[in-house]
Amino acid sequence: MSASSAGSGSGRITDLLDRAEQHWAVDSSTDDARAYALSARVLYVARLIEQGFVAKCRSFGLATGELLVLEALHRLGAPYEATPAQLRKYFFVSFAGIGKRVNKLEALGYIERGVVEADKRSQTIRLTQTGLTVLSNSSRSGHEQLHRAALSSMCLEDQKTLAALLRQLQQNMEKIGADHA
């Protein structure tokens, strides 16, 4: 599937999804076909970005979730430390899922665990110098460029519009999910 310069419903067929949308509209409504094609396009673009991200992570011997833990700790700023509950907010995954990632990162020496002074029952997870080095190498090897390259064909205004539209879609999907839970 190639990139499309024409948006869904523009009347111009420029890629496989546009052709599929036209065929789907024969058996269902145009609105249903457009909604399905847009969903399929979002999923396809996400998969392409994920494939590039997975390849970069593998080059460092990490799974995507593990690199994301390192990045989350780094984004928090010095001393690059958080509790599992704070990390959970970044990932929307279970504590068990975070625990598995933290165990591997600790075994590799990329993070270290500590104890929260105010509550000895709580632990902290801190990025080590080795972990910082891995992040630095990841950035230099093109990990961050991957994200920029994905948007390079769009001007800044289009990127902002896309972000706003995706945010709106995300919030609507979260609401729909909450309404159906």
TrEMBL record:
Instruction: Enumerate the Gene Ontology biological process terms.
Output: response to stress
Domain of life from the UniProt record: Bacteria
Do you know which Gene3D superfamilies this protein is assigned to? Winged helix-like DNA-binding domain superfamily/Winged helix DNA-binding domain
Q: Which UniProt keywords apply?
A: DNA-binding
Q: Which terms does the record give in the GO molecular function aspect?
A: DNA binding; DNA-binding transcription factor activity
Q: Residue ranges of the HTH marR-type domain?
A: 35-171
- The name of this protein is DNA-binding MarR family transcriptional regulator
Which lineage?
A: Bacteria, Pseudomonadati, Pseudomonadota, Alphaproteobacteria, Sphingomonadales
